[in-house]
Amino acid sequence: MNAAPDEVTPDSGIAGALPPGERFWRRLGGVAFGGDYNPEQWPAETRAEDLRLMAEARVNLVTVGVFAWARVEPARGAYDFSFFDRVLDDLHAHGITADLATMTASPPPWLVHEHPEILPVTADGTVLGPGGRQHFCPSSPVYRERAGLLAERLATHYRGHPALGLWHVGNEYGCHIAACYCAESAAGFRRWLRERYGDDVEALNDAWSTDFWSQRFASFDHVQPPRAAPTYPNPAQQLDYMRFSSEALRECFELEAGILRRITPEVPITTNFLGGLKSVDVFDWAPRLDVVAVDSYPDPLDERPHLAPGLVYDTMRGAGGGAPWILMEQAPSAVNWRARNAIKQPGQMRLWSWQAVAHGADAVLFFQWRQSRGGAEKFHSGMVPHAGADSRVYREIAALGQELASVPGLLGTRVRNDVAILLDWNSWWALELDSHPSDGVRQQERLLEHYTPLFDLGVGVDVVPPSADLTGYALVVVPNLYLLPSRDAARLSAYVQGGGALVVSFFSGIVDEHDRVHLGGYPAPLREVLGVRVEEFCPAAEHETFPVRGCEALADHEGVAGLWREDLRLTGARPELVFDAPGWAGRPVATRHEYGAGTARYLSARLDEATMRAILGRAAAEAGVKPVVEGLPSGVQASVRAGDGRRFLILLNHTGDKHDVALTGEWADGLAGLDEPVGTVTLPPLGVAVLRATG
What is the pTM assigned to this prediction? Predict the structure, then answer.
């Protein structure tokens, strides 16, 4: 290595003055660009070419060693870091920062051979074997001990190495093993329940409604995980097990992170969340990271493949309190794990990379640098594909690296929005449990049905939990927030009373934190603020739809509802939409209620896209919310990033057509480095424009 363990790195003088995350961004000096680098898969001559190509592509950050446990500890306690010493020395010599993994995401064969009890067990009792990855029980003391020992040896060995800029703990926690149901996990669950319920089994019985089906417990010792059962397991038990499982994985992360912070307090820590993953509560985990990171793999075959990633990116930014975040993984072209693995068309990789930047990312990385020759992911694309550097993919990669390097002023600027969408992992878990009125109410689908109209209106959003400070938002949208504790319901009511605008969709505010129904008519804790009362749910048959028509300001609107209906009674609200179907004609579908200084709307059915756009557009206009850029063509996105007197406007054309965008204000071409104002920007199909404010 180039640096001894006690040697200071070039920028360590500011370590005490800056948080580790801020120190990391300043070290890079511009938007980070790179990907997963797996030199252990390649001979020395290939590694030499890698470094040359990385310099050519302006790579400045690579993730190293994610799946290298067996390489550095080939037998118990036989640590050998010599290979990665050379790798990190070479990276430093070429000015590349290492996001060094703790290498604990995939236990080595010797550990499974010596301790097969670390293997995870499914709810039906199947023991999952090695041969893939993430083959460990999160509650296993043996796994945790060996992972902690490896993290300690890594941190001690690489402390002070000048290439080390970021620690990467684990990898995609919860992706393959969301929960384990073995005896060790059962014991851990019982300990967790004792802490949660104060060692009072009667409190547990009350929370779980155990008088139903004779499930009352006499002792915590009798509690088991919700394993495969003759019929529906206790829903509150399932919910608590999801909480426990997310926290068990988090404890694995925190074990390693605690060791790293003790030995290398100046080095920031991250782990990579997986976009749209249900099993890990990102809002719970994020405060424990110095930098939030996420992996995103949209399907090029989707009709509008940019929408779901946008929702993910806004969630990550919300989880990090608005701070810059890392796009840790995306595919340069095709992935390998779908039934049909489409390539990214020319320009699509560039567009989607800039989309992440438009949503607040200060790092654009890929999986992986060089496409593997063997193994399960050999057909997953790489920045350097099997065809080598003489390829479309690499040429696009190198061009993107040059572009990102041309706008260092973007670093540290932030995205700020006037609209929030609420997401809560506890509600997500509870919403999708079995034995509900309809299995069609799925959280991600319903989120997108609220997110898409706002996107089409040109309105940016933050995705935040119900516990977030909402006072700075002009409009708060609540998609199907099934589980709502009374304290959070009171906060929503206070937000409206203080002048906020609220839109709430059906099947919200139904149960408390223990999945017990709020009584007195749905949605009990929100009835007063919404001015409505629901006596009965009337879910629709599959593909059944109902015509709806507008009232008052929406009198000329006609649309369609489906999936869900409610027997909705008005207790102060006025209708904005009513059903126009036999037997339901005139019954309210969408309502508006003035409450205190604000307004609250309620939607009692799933509405078609145009109708949702009309309702949300009216709510946004009343709240004073404006598009980022007025008059944008359909399918063109605009985002403003600002900070410290710098402002950037990013325009993204998600369509296959050319579009002209007229600008107001003084904007110059940020990628070309020009100062002349631009009045109109022409965006080719899948085109991107990055503009810098000059005024």
Answer: 0.96
